[in-house]
Amino acid sequence: MLKGALIGCGYIFPRHVRAWSEVPDAELVALCDLDLKKAQRLASRHGIAHAFASIDELLEKMAGELDFVDVAVPPEAHRMVVEKAVSHGINVLCQKPMAHTLEDSLAITRVTELASLTGAVNEMWKWLPAYAHAGAMIAAGDLGHIERVRFTAECNLLLPRRGEFAFPGVADEDPDVYEELFRRYQPMPRMILLDYGPHILDVLRFWFGEPTALRASVARTHPGVAGDDAVNVTLRYPGFDAEMAIDISRPGPEVRDNLDAEAVAVRGSKGLLTVMAGKWLEWHPTDGERVRISFPQEPRVEAFRNSHQDFVSSLQEGRSPQSSMRDSLRTQSLVFAAYESARRDGTWLSQPSEFASHHPCVE
After folding, report:
1. Fewer CB within 10 Å, N- or C-terminus of the chain?
2. Does the pTM of the predicted model rise above 0.85?
3. What strands, in cross-sheet order, belong to the sheet with 68-71?
4. Does 158 lie in the same domain as 63?
């Protein structure tokens, strides 16, 4: 049985602790959070033996017992936590985004690789059942030659929710979970492209591989936030473009969950594939009847479980996880290439998945 510690008990905590409860051959033996009383309360609630207020105390007392840590602190602290865990020879699963800067993303990748440890990013969107099914159809050639792709996520996530939680179907640990999310977003100079963009960009990479070029624009429309809350990114592939559009401050009908606002359309020479809200997939072939498939109404549960399971399996099997640090660095490269393109008024940038290799901190 692999033993791990979950570091960070914020708004994403319920997702992680539930996933670990459903993964065989792994268990959480410790929680760590700056709010010790909160960590102790949650540890008691979930049957976890230990609780700590600092990463240093956790590692000092338990490093010899830990096979992995699950890092779920804000992204600006990821590098610090990962480097401390790796210095004690502990494998790392890190919540997305990998880090808040490209320099930190590079450092995280390097430190885990130099230590010959397993590192992964919890990029679980590609494991949402509808998106996994769509990926299988694309890989099997069911759509024929891809002609156009559009992936949108437009909703009122940053507008008042009248008491409705951001994550339906999962018991929130604290009543102020939405307010905590908004407080975290408010000061971020780079916001929705960095925080939400990796989900969609990772899915597009999973489906189609690495783009040959990229261009982007970003905007801030909500007066209460410092960073971008709307973004358009175009990824160029041989023979087609894949467009991503995110807007989380759009007025209009209230959605209970941002996933409900996602819409995907993949047009191929053999038909049109659509996915709505990550829950309904439709296949409209050019020479046959429409096929509609319904997926779980709370698809994140399976996605988190599969992401955590892949990490555990990689430790057991001695292989690289699907969302390894090195692979996730390519997604981060797309994110920061998009910011750079936007800074240049939408200039096309070539080989954007390798953007990190041109960073000034690369020797």
Report:
1. C
2. yes
3. 50-52, 26-32, 2-7, 68-71, 91-95, 119-122
4. no
Q: Residues 6 or more apart from 87 whose CB is under 8 A from it? A: none
Q: Does residue 228 contact residue 191 with C-beta atoms inside 8 Å?
A: yes
Q: Provide the Cα torsion 154, 157, 162, 167; round to 10°.
A: 110
| Domain end position, chosen among 117, 141, 170 | 117
- 112 and 222 within one domain: no
Structure-block tokens of residue 24: 């065989």
CB 277 within 8 A of CB 260: yes
CATH number at residue 254: 3.30.360.10
Angle between helices 78-87 and 55-62 (to 10 degrees): 20
- DSSP assignment of 270-317 equals TEEEEEETTTEEEEEETTS--EEEE--SSTHHHHHHHHHHHHHHHHHH
Report pLDDT digits (tens) over 46-84: 999 999 999 999 999 999 999 999 999 999 999 999 999
Distance from chain centroid for Cα 127: 11
The residue written with tokens 């960070």 in the block is 8
Assign residue 51 the CATH number of its domain: 3.40.50.720
Q: How far apart are the C-alpha atoms of 65 and 22, rounded to whole Å?
A: 21
Its domain, for residue 152, covers: 126-302+336-341
Residues 69 and 97 reside in one and the same domain: yes
Per residue in 281-326, pLDDT (tens digit) is: 999 999 989 999 999 989 999 999 999 999 999 999 999 999 999 9
Residue 308 inside a domain? The answer is no
Cα 181 off chain centre by: 15
How many CB atoms are located within 10 Å of the residue 285 CB?
16
DSSP states of 77-133:
GHHHHHHHHHHTT-EEEEESSS-SSHHHHHHHHHHHHHTT--EEEE--GGGSHHHHH
Query: Does residue 180 carry a pLDDT above 50?
Result: yes
